[in-house]
Design goal:
Shape of chain A: globular
Structural class of chain A: mainly alpha
Strand content of chain A: under 5%
CATH topology of the largest domain in chain B: Rossmann fold
Strand content of chain B: 5-15%
Number of helices of chain A: 10
CATH class of the largest domain in chain A: Mainly Alpha
Distance between the termini of chain B: 22 Å
CATH topology of the largest domain in chain A: Fumarate Reductase Iron-sulfur Protein, Chain B, domain 2
Largest sheet of chain A: none
Strand order of the largest sheet of chain B: 2-1-3-4
CATH superfamily of the largest domain in chain A: Alpha-helical ferredoxin
CATH class of the largest domain in chain B: Alpha Beta
Number of domains of chain B: 2
Structural class of chain B: alpha/beta
Oligomer: heterodimer
Number of strands of chain A: 0
Mean pLDDT of chain A: 90
Mean pLDDT of chain B: 96
Chain lengths: 175, 293
């Protein structure tokens, strides 16, 4: 429908708050350099073998500040295979995969994860490993004459996971 | 002997001890001394935990690297995921303000990251430290006629500016390592594809794996050679799933390169844990008559 003056509600407004929060994440600000050339799409396995995923479109939504379309349950972001082809191909060094991971960090701040992802994160935070040890594992290792696995000093790891007050980006409410 | 700190990660020591056995068996025979790292944790993984909070991910990875710094050694990894995390950390923490943030956290546990230990994928130790000739000379059972389809996986090569392992568009390291064993490397049409493990939907990895396995079948490769335990899982358990889903018979056994190297160096087939794989590389049996250790 053609826009007529006065119908301001049809105008897409850039959500700068979303962009500021994303820029606080490690390498979250890189999308600003995207000029929408689409070099990231051709070699993207998720774009090739799926119907919806398109890294260029995700970068465009970031530029428009359309966080509401990305930061949702069952977000398209989780279709990324983390293959790094887009990082390799981007002429602007946008690193789309890193922007996507920064967006996932924002999802995490909202407490939104797929179940499988949340499970691995929890195992790591509780044990310092992503694959837990068991008696069966110890037996298997002994069979191959491998040394016992040294314990992970989990309290040291957990101390590192607490955000510091002045480092920015860890708390979405401090925007 | 050149000494390197060994960062084994989670998947290989816990799920695939046979791979670790093969590494510990083969490297010392190539002049590389393995120094174990006490107190290491998960790298942390570049898919799940990195998705939660990159800064915490960097802090834990920096702690792991600082353990190798204490020993004054470069660190090597046997998993491409660990390589991704640790190499990216080394790269990102050249940024002073990011390094300061990470060191503020490390101070809580009396540690500091200095950036003095380089990260090496185990494959580069064979190429750059031992050399292809030494690998070839260590072989007592040349695997002549064995066709090995190469799966590079993603994080050995990319991002290439950070990994600095090989040309991501035309890598050669795996082909040369397979050739050094007397075997024939096969580069199939979909050689550059991802294993799909990180993708959190069903269809994309299934369609991709189906396409990839079809081209491997076209080449009539005997085995699929790889250097990442995550890719291995996708090709072992995953290959069965894809066969069932598409009603086709895919059955090329995957094998972690260092187990193939150990076998070529004379370790008996039955000592290499292949019975735990869903697709067993029985085709190696025909070389068993050659010299054994």
């Amino acid at each position: 429908m053609p826009e007529t003056p006065g119908e301001k509600d049809d105008v897409v407004r850039v959500n700068f708050q979303f962009r500021r929060e994303l820029a606080e994440k490690v390498e979250g600000n890189l999308a600003s350099f995207c000029y929408q050339c689409g070099a990231c799409v051709g070699d993207c396995p998720a774009a090739t073998y799926g119907d919806e995923f398109n890294p260029r479109e995700i970068m465009l939504k970031v530029l428009y500040g359309l966080g509401d379309e990305l930061l949702v349950e069952d977000s398209i972001l989780w279709e990324c295979t983390n293959c790094y082809n887009c990082h390799e191909r981007c002429p602007q060094e946008v690193k789309p995969v890193e922007v996507i991971i920064s967006l996932k960090n924002m999802l995490a701040d909202l407490g939104i994860y797929p179940d499988a992802v949340e499970k691995v994160i929890k195992t790591f935070e509780e044990t310092g490993r992503t694959t837990p040890l068991s008696a069966a594992v110890t037996r298997q290792r002994e069979r191959f004459n491998l040394p016992p696995l040294p314990p992970v000093p989990i309290e040291e790891i957990q101390k590192l996971l607490e955000p510091a007050p002045d480092e920015g980006g860890a708390d979405p409410t401090d925007g | 002997m050149r000494r390197f700190a060994f960062f084994p990660g989670c998947l290989i020591p816990v799920r695939h001890p046979a791979m670790e056995f093969a590494i510990r068996h083969t490297l010392p025979r190539l002049g590389i001394e393995i120094v174990d790292l006490e107190g290491a944790s998960c790298c942390p993984d570049p898919i799940y935990f990195k998705s939660k909070d990159k800064l915490s991910w960097l802090a834990v990875a920096a702690r792991n690297l600082s353990l190798a710094e204490d020993l004054g050694l470069d660190v090597f990894t046997n998993c491409s995921g660990c390589t991704a995390t640790l190499s990216e950390t080394y790269h990102l923490l050249q940024d002073e303000s990011l390094r300061a943030k990470v060191n503020t956290r490390l101070k809580r546990i009396g540690r500091q990251y200095r950036g003095t230990s380089r990260v090496r994928h185990i494959v580069t130790l064979l190429r750059d430290v031992a050399g292809y000739d030494a690998v070839r000379q260590s072989v007592v059972r040349p695997l002549e006629g064995l066709k090995v389809a190469i799966h590079y996986g993603c994080h050995l090569l990319k991002p290439s500016r950070i990994m600095q392992v090989d040309d991501p568009n035309n890598p050669t390291v795996m082909e040369k390592l397979v050739t050094a064993l007397g075997a024939t490397p096969v580069r199939h049409r979909n050689w550059y594809l991802c294993c799909g493990k990180a993708c959190q939907t069903e269809d994309i990895p299934a369609n991709m794996m189906h396409d990839l396995l079809s081209t491997v079948n076209d080449e009539q490769a005997d085995i699929l050679g790889m250097i990442c335990p995550t890719c291995f899982g996708q090709f072992d358990h995953g290959q069965m799933k894809v066969s069932k889903q598409f009603g086709e018979d895919f059955h090329t056994p995957p094998i972690y390169y260092f187990q193939l190297l150990a076998f070529a160096q004379g370790v008996p087939y039955d000592k290499l844990g292949f019975e735990r794989q869903r697709f067993k590389p029985q085709c190696l049996r025909r070389f068993e008559a050659s010299a054994a250790v």
